[in-house]
Amino acid sequence: MAAIKQRKTKYSVIYWYVNEQGERKQKWDTVDTVSEAKSRKVFVEFYQERYGQVIVPNEETYFQRVADEKAKTGKEDGTDEHDSGSEPIRRRPPTPKSAVTPQKDDITFSEFLKHYVKVYGTSKWSMSTYSGKTGLIRNYIDPYIGDKKLSEITTECLSEYYNDLLSVERVPPANRKKTGECVAPSGVKKIHDVIRSALNQAMKWNYLDPMMQNPAKLATLPTMKKMKRKVWSVSTFREALPRDEDDILALAMNLSGCALLAFSCSLRVGEITGLTWDCVFIDEESIENGNARVIINKEVARVSIEALQKLNERDVLATFPAQKPHCTTRLVLKTPKTETSTRVVWLPKTVAHMLVEHRKKQEELKEFLGVDYHDYNLVVALENGNPVESRIIRKRLQVFCDAAGYERVDFHSLRHLSTKYKLKLTQGDIKSVQGDTGHAEAQMVTDVYSEIEDENRRENAARMEADFYSPTAKNGKSSATEDIGEALAAILKNLSPEQLAALVSAVR
Questions:
Q1: Which pTM value belongs to this model?
Q2: β-strand 3-7 against 280-281: which pairing, if any?
Q3: Confidence band (pLDDT; 50, 70, 90) for 378?
Q4: Which residues contact 307 (CB under 8 A, 6 or more apart)?
Q5: pLDDT tens, 164-182?
Q6: Which contacts (CB < 8 Å, 24+ apart) does range 157-166 have?
Q7: Of 120, 317, 461, 462, which residue is 20 to 30 A from 61 by alpha carbon distance?
């Protein structure tokens, strides 16, 4: 029997053989992927069962040798007869189906996707990503092109499929009602990303010719208009804060946005709902010294029970009890999605004092409810201590906008506003702002910065109008020019004759 052992990023198939001296030795055959290892293991066991405890050649060498013997004897493969005194030709055994990589004509796209998720998805994806991508496969890929052979997944096929998806009704998230809306171009793009990744692996694992081009690469996607996110102005946000009577929403808004025009946390909604008191430092000394801060190292997310099981609760710190029977998902407290998401963010004093008052109210509520309060040590929690799901905060913001007469914005736009304001406040210090936001790539921050640059350019045009083109400008000379001239005259006046002579010489 052979065994498989993982060694860092590689996989080894381990088996025993007997050398020419009769000594029992161990052999390690190392491959890149677990699927290759499984295939090799099956072949090793088949070969040693037939030929004894010997070193096992690779599959290509073995089958080529059999083919050569067949060509040499002129006999059909598998004859046991003697031919002109030659050694008997061993019958070539039927190749075990799992011994070699399945051929492209032998597997459907749906079957391959199951293998792709099992081998690639469980090792590479986070809990939330696993839930999202398997949902796309189950709802949009398997029902429509899953029955096709893997070899039939062509560029033309995918282009037609993507276009047809636009008329497919969108499947709502778990425990949510249908809206009647169809799949949007942005949704098609997410489905395309899954298919492209799967086909890349198909070529790496030799299910498809590795020399061919990924069929998804050149497929035509529906035109996707880049929608500019609606974001409040700083003045609108400042005006809205005192009008918000929803304590949970007000606190979340301050943690997400730029509370009272000062620095704030720029947190994602899942990071806000996952913040625990042990990661909040708001003692009097810290606040007074400007060292009040929070540590962002967790987030609340809703994931499928399947993801929990398949990934063995990887990255999950706690699983909250289900609030409804027969629920197929669970709310979990988990580590952030990227390493850069784990960070320290310093608080403005105003927000720190808000947290102090919030903790007092929470402690009073905890004492009042007693055993009916579910204490998970969460900063942002429902009245009974249970976690606040992100959709609740998003819904409350929509209700607040409608009631107060403000333009509807999604909650994530407050994080966008905070990033924009901090960039302007720091005069474009991208790295420091990136440290607050936890973006893995600086490009995400610079995209926001480009908006600020446009604003500055508009302001420059206004300044030029007032300084150069306005009737108050003297003889076409701007006040800025006059200021420069006056400053230069003052400098020259203070130069010694020697310095002045040297300056004139240098100019010449």
A1: 0.60
A2: unpaired
A3: very high
A4: 127, 128, 130, 131, 134
A5: 999 999 998 766 778 889 9
A6: 157/215, 158/192, 158/195, 158/215, 158/216, 158/219, 159/219, 159/220, 162/188, 162/191, 162/192, 162/219, 162/220, 162/221, 162/222, 163/220, 163/222, 165/140, 165/191, 165/222, 166/222
A7: 120
